[in-house]
Amino acid sequence: MGTNKQLVISSFSDDIRAATSILTTELPKISENQILVKNKYVGINALYDRELYRGKVPYINVKFPYVFGVEAVGEIIETGSLVNNFAIGDAISTVKVGTAYKEFQVLDADEAIAIPEATPEYLTINPTGVSAYLGLKNVAELKPKETIVVSAAAGGLGHIVVQLAKQKDCHVVAICGTKEKETLLQSLNCCDRIINHRKENIHTVLSTEYASKIDAAFDSVGRHMFDAFLKNLAPLGRLVVSGLATEINEGSFEKINAPRVYESIYWKGASVRCFMNHLYKDQHPEARNILFKQYQKRELQVKVDPKKFQGIEAIVEASEYLLAGKSCGKVVVEL
Ligand SMILES: NC(=O)c1ccc[n+]([C@@H]2O[C@H](COP(=O)([O-])OP(=O)(O)OC[C@H]3O[C@@H](n4cnc5c(N)ncnc54)[C@H](OP(=O)(O)O)[C@@H]3O)[C@@H](O)[C@H]2O)c1
């Protein structure tokens, strides 16, 4: 009987090292409709995970020990007797809250998505690319030739957002925080203006170059970034809150003393909207298939952070790396 090493949340804490531990269990047996998968790569969602091991994700009741991680790609090593849509050796992708950070996982066969090969690129598309696609379509409601501003644009999510925006012939303003991220954004050939927020003041640049010109803003950062986007929205502009990196990293929402949000947007008929990927589940297959095809036809570049992390133990380190704002593209761990 083999063993299955997993990273679990074993207590609530602000610090991933205090909150988590490694648990080794026996490999479970599969039933007739299930498959056993050897995970090859798992995706790191450090900001979401942080709220999880703080016990602050409102729709998840974390009971210890709680296996976490959302997405993985891997290879099927065993199939149940009634499984006829998969065979041993097939590559699959899975997206399921509370499953990924383990060496092996048991799945119902209908939970697995066939992919040509278990690579970090397919892992990035499903679900991070899918989030980019669905956020732009349903929440930003991006239209051709509009001006869009994207924060954390060289991140796992951001680098797909900027490319999909350019496919609509939009004017794309990409914001990032390091020289390496600038280089990544340049390599995508889709950004009309790249702003390194450590070199240029974001408020000044947007108020000078894009005052009342932002039709859509896609923000994963919050605080000063959100404020600068809000201030410069165009009439009918949409500010999408897709992530809250600053608030989550600080551990509490900054209290501000200012007029309510409608003060800046009422007369423009503009809006602030929030995006939450899992609420668009019915659209996941369509989005996934579109992006898989684009990637295969080389119409979409998928960037994976070059830093190598290996093994279940390395998930903690990879998470800290992302939280430190160092990553370029999607952070993955090879198991
Ligand atoms: N709503 C949803 O359904 C959904 C789905 C997927 C992801 N998300 C969110 O989208 C965001 C991007 O996720 P990702 O996994 O692709 O991460 P990421 O963008 O690869 O990494 C986070 C980036 O955010 C920026 N950042 C700014 N302030 C930060 C701070 N205080 N702490 C950490 N990072 C900070 C940094 O980029 P710069 O140096 O360039 O500023 C950093 O590299 C996250 O906030 C995530 O929670 C939301």
Describe the model.
There is one protein chain. The chain has eleven helices and 15 strands. It has helices at residues 16-19, 46-53, 120-140, 158-167, 179-187, 202-209, 223-231, 245-250, 262-265, 284-296, 314-323, and strands spanning 3-9, 20-26, 34-43, 66-67, 71-79, 91-95, 104-108, 113-114, 147-150, 171-176, 193-196, 214-219, 233-241, 271-274, 332-334. The protein starts with a strand and ends with a strand. It has two domains: 3-118 and 305-334, Quinone Oxidoreductase, Chain A, domain 1 (Alpha-Beta Complex), CATH 3.90.180; 126-278, Rossmann fold, CATH 3.40.50. Strand 10, helix 5 (179-187) and strand 11 form a beta-alpha-beta unit. With 335 residues, it is α/β, with parallel strands linked by helices. Helix 3 crosses helix 10 (284-296) and helix 6 packs parallel to helix 7. The model has no long low-confidence stretch (mean pLDDT 97). 30% of the residues lie in helices and 25% in strands. It binds NADP nicotinamide-adenine-dinucleotide phosphate. The site of NADP nicotinamide-adenine-dinucleotide phosphate has 29 residues, from helix 2, helix 3, helix 8 and helix 11. NADP nicotinamide-adenine-dinucleotide phosphate is lined by residues 45, 47-48, 128, 131, 152, 154-158, 176-178, 181, 220-221, 242-243, 245-246, 249, 275-277, 322-323, 325, 327.
